Amino acid sequence: MKLVSCNKLENNKVALEVTVTAEEFQPVLDVVYRKHAKEITIPGFRKGKAPRAYVEKQYGDYFIEEAVNDMYPQAYEEACGEANVTPVEAAQVEVKEASKDGFTFVATVTVKPEVEVKNYKGLKAPKAEAKIDEADVETTLAQLRDRAARLVTIEDRPAQMNDTVNINFEGFADGVAFEGGKGEGVDLVLGSGHFIPGFEEQIVGHSTGDSFDVTVTFPEEYHATDLAGKPAVFKVKVKEIQKRELPEVNDEFASEVSDFDTLEEYKNDLRVKLQDEKQKAADTEIENRVVDKVVENASMEIADQMVDEEVNGMLNDYVRRLESQGISFKQYAEITGMTAEKIGEQMKPQALKRIQTRLVLEAVVKAENITASDEDVDAQFDKMAEAYKMEKDQIKGMFGEEQIAQMKEDLAVQNAITFLVKEAALTE
Questions:
Q1: How far apart are CA 31 and CA 244, in angstroms?
Q2: What is the pLDDT of residues 278-302, one digit of tens each?
Q3: pTM as predicted
Q4: CA 108 to chain centre
């Protein structure tokens, strides 16, 4: 393989012209020939027995095309390495000429941009507070108390906001029942906003066993266009009303939600954990402030393709998170009226910032010759083993050479953040 030229184009694109010699190409061509020749029949010869010259006369172009396709990926990868460019998308390839004597192609591809990092040492950044007070402890206890609440059925009063009601309902528009407007035994928290605006408020004041009409108007941007902006009547029946009952915060509560026997012991443990969390949050905030300043001082040109690729990755992660909660993207889109395109547009600023941050940190890694040691990798495996409750050797066995190399790159980037914070001048 010979890299003939590497021409820089606009928008972080390069055109790589690559030539593969006959000496390199012939072995691949031989493999393709042997794979197909035994199945080819040439008049005057038994199947698979015709001399190669006869076979190539009729099928040579086909063999060459397949051999080019087989050999191109390796030639392209080697050319990228020799040109010291990192593609960020699939290349557009044009084969200029191809014969049994080799082939030449031009690969046009978007690559990582050149990044100029300036004034990244001694940056001034305000310190982040890492103090907790008793209010933090009480807030955490209140949250735990809220999560430990239980639902109690009530029959001595009508429904109120924040109650959970179990209802049957059926909706009608212009006197006709519409698709998806019927439900039986549906639990609804009044005030949650899960139903059409105005629906939940009209249940307040009704008691168990009541049947009544709820009149609402669908939002103008409702996902079902045939109902958007239309008035509707729901026939509703209240089957059950439940209220949330909060436990008392005492020694018994502490023993139920923790491994401690008394509330005071539990509070002491909470103080330690909250202080640790606060310190980690403060450290992260300082890192973000310093890195943001480094990004502001850097110069780079980000191609649209890089942003689009990052957005696609973020969208895929978003869909996986929804599915892990038992919600398909189709259901989410119907409920919210959002589309992948709309969500992608909202994600673009964050995607751009992610790309800029990564590129700048990689530039600092290169400029300062920052690496990740074997000890760093080993410590990372310790963290993963603890997080996933697995044996360390079992975790390590799941990583090949490429994954280890990627881990080292990521750890080097993290070490670059540590370096930048250490070099920064933190102010009060």
A1: 74
A2: 999 999 999 999 999 999 999 998 9
A3: 0.70
A4: 28
